Fold this protein.
Amino acid sequence: MKRRKFLKNSSLTTVGIVSASALASCKTENKTEENTLAPTSSETIKPIVVCTWNFHNATSKAWEVLSKGGNALDAVEQGVMVEEADETNETVGKGGRPDRDGNVTLDACIMDKDGNCGSVVYLQNIVHPVSVARKVMEETPHIILAGKGAEKFAYEQGFEKEDLLTESTRKQYQEWLKTSKYETTINIENHDTIGMLAIDANGDISGACTTSGMAYKVVGRVGDSPIIGAGLYVDNEVGGATATGVGEEVIRTVGSFLIVELMRQGKSPQEACEEGVKRIMKKNEGREDFQIGFLAINKNGETGGYCVHPGFTYREYSEKGHENRQVKSFYS
Ligand code: SD4
């Protein structure tokens, strides 16, 4: 059943008509009257891609798609797929750390300019959960598929079964089993979930988020990353936001949706991310044992980020160049 004929919509037209020369002129434009966003910047930057942490290869891939005139949805999917396939990234895709029983279970979601979205949670044996999430979005009338059902659907869609544990994560897991500490504290400097937001040459926004979640989590645990509104949210009139860190805290504040709504009310991406973290800290007064990083982009291509502890960065790639940006934090 095809709920959405995504490939027939204008994004495809965009791919067809936006040439390299068109992109050459896609530097900065004056803001148009059409934006519902309260102005926080006088120029529009597009195309542009940002992602949580310093994922150079992932943003480069997304930029490659955008700079050839590709749409934002393809850019974010192909961008985050780079990390899903990278076995050295131990919190995304193949090579992600397992749960307490040794299963690698993946969470991912994707959202497009029209508010269409797809998500998979607790997915095993598939290297690219973001692509399965996209299939859920495009090929089913649903938004979230979980566990065995998601895996069965993936095989039906032609995805191949693969062992996601690597030699390295298997060894680490065996080491962890010696103490089997049942605590969900994660190293505040070591969150590698990738959340990516892109604006294409057409000015349309999409986002994706993918993770293996917290290492040695309770079996069955699902974090914020595949939850639309928590780990990711996109509103094509306003902007997008994504999160990394302890997902439970992001879910409690519906963090990404909150940030997009704050931008709708006129806050800059930076101000909105700061407010998002402050809301979380209000519910966790005095608690310092967790990290959250928020990243946001508005319709103008203005970006911002904020986190609980120093260390969170985000990578930005536009015609202006690419850089890894340090963000301010709640605690210094
Ligand atoms: C989760 N937010 O599952 C994810 C974890 C994360 O880098 O961001 N790790 O809660």
